[in-house]
Amino acid sequence: MKGQPVTVRTCCHPSLDLLAVEIESREPLTVLFDFPYASPRMNAADWTSVGAHKTVVVSREAGEFSLRRELDNDRYYVSIVPHGKAEMEQAGPHLFHLRGWGQFGWVCQFSPQGVRLTGTAPAEAFLASERHWSGFWQGGAAVDLEGSKDPRAKELERRMVLSQYLTAIQCSGSRPPQETGLTCNSWYGKFHLEMHWWHAAHFALWGRTPLLWKSMLWYRQILPMALAKARSQGYEGARWPKMVGPEGRDSPSPVGPLLIWQQPHPICLAELCFQSMPWREILEIYAPLVFETAHFMASYAHWDAARRRYVLGPPVIPAQENHPARETWNPTFELAYWAHGLKLAQRWRRRLGLPPEPAWEKVRRNLSALPAKDGVYLAHENCPQTFTERNRDHPSMLVALGVLPGEGVDRETMRRTLKKVMREWRWPDTWGWDFPMVAMTAARLGETQIAVDALLMESPKNVYLPNGHNYQRPNLPLYLPGNGGLLAAVALMAGGWQGGPKAHAPGFPPDAWTVRSEGLKPLL
């Protein structure tokens, strides 16, 4: 202001919905508090519909402003407490001015019922934040690439550190996050359950399993709805929705009702929790999710009597969503995921002293073989050619060995598939999690140079901004599945996987990369 420096410090309280700000200025300043109406646009704010909502001053005692916000049927409260040389006044229907000078600040808390903050100072929030982040960084896993000859090592370290921070603040809440987290609005604020693995699986791999627990418990809340959804369609067990809000109701969509690759996620995420902390309590908490998911998966597969096998679809939309649902069956990734998920569900029964479920085992043992042609895996069995005519979106056939341990995979067929993808795929048409997904496949195949090159490929969807966000396009400036996928890939490449080679950092080329790590958990 007027050429004078202004120092601003901000922090979010680690356990309260509270923002604290401290300002130091030689000149008087006015800070604006302005409240918009809701909007489906990216910034979620409509500043023009002034009469469509209300901001009511409930009280202004001892310097504290207590406000009630009313938007349609929604109500919440905002408490603002100035600190230091500052005074607050209302300047419009939804606008408030905080005038301050010298050293001043405020705390602002949001709550569903209203709270009193009188006497709360910004310093308290800053201290709580410092303690929280000190514990975060001193706990969990760590990876150090110092001394690597590859000049990209510093960039990968930057992405790793910032991705840990971003996923901690955006993806570790009590519900699965939307793909832009809490930063901006995407897909009308809904979260996509097929993305939950990419958002949160890495927490268990990096030794921060409690950050995964919170969103896993949400599946228990919506289990009755998932059970009802399966029954309404003639299936057993629980069918998980695709694009949802907090209540778990599927959104209208031409894709969502036919997508299935989110179904095994609760089984695999529960297994990651148990692998990190093998407690009976974990088994008992998540057993209903694991078992009801497996019941649906076995019920969904249908018997092809002519060829004596179980088939997935049609109609089905695979992870690579550009295939017509009525012409698609037995997608490679989903077949491998079905086999893996049912195998894990049987393992959970054994751990709990229960006998194997015969229906699950019958489906698992008689699933269709992974479809291949011309020496490579197909996106699904009914692809007219290999995958060259639809080589956009996700190269999801690679997930069968990489993210997954490779149920029914022939390694050399997958190796040829990987190299064909690297040569021919339309990388600008992919998504941010595709690059770490490809890297995980390459790592499991021992193609370590391909793994690093895929993870750090220069491509429009693999850009990581200075703040660490994985940029996709102008209306999707951040994409957290890319950040979570990067962390999962690094964990596998540096920490290995169950049944993998005993070599140190098996996913990195040993001649060009120096990798030190501690605390990483092996992927299944």
Overview of the structural elements:
This protein is an alpha+beta fold and 524 residues long. The chain has a domain at 6-119. It is 34% helix and 19% strand. The protein has helices spanning 122-138, 153-170, 196-205, 210-232, 265-276, 280-300, 332-351, 358-365, 411-424, 434-444, 448-455, 480-495, and strands spanning 6-12, 18-34, 37-38, 45-46, 53-59, 65-71, 74-90, 95-111, 142-144, 191-192, 243-244, 302-304, 309-311, 372-373, 376-377, 463-464, 470-471, 516-518. The strands form 7 sheets. It has a 6-stranded antiparallel β-sheet with strand order 1-2-8-7-6-5. Strand 5 (53-59) and strand 6 (65-71) form a beta hairpin. It is globular, with a radius of gyration of 25 Å. It starts with 5 loop residues before the first strand and ends in a 6-residue tail after the last strand. The model has no long low-confidence stretch (mean pLDDT 95).
The helix tally amounts to: 12
Q: Average pLDDT across residues? A: 95
Low-confidence stretches: none
> Which range does the strand content fall in?
15-25%
Order of neighbouring strands in the sheet with most strands:
1-2-8-7-6-5
What is the N-to-C order of secondary-structure elements (H for helix, E for strand)?
EEEEEEEEHEHEHHEHHEEHHEEHHHEEHE
Helix percent band:
25-40%
Based on Cα principal axes, name the global outline: globular
Class based on secondary structure composition and strand pairing: alpha+beta
Largest β sheet strand count, sense and barrel closure: 6 strands, antiparallel
Number of strands: 18
Q: Quote the distance from N terminus to C terminus.
A: 56 Å
As a whole number of angstroms, the C-alpha radius of gyration is 25 Å
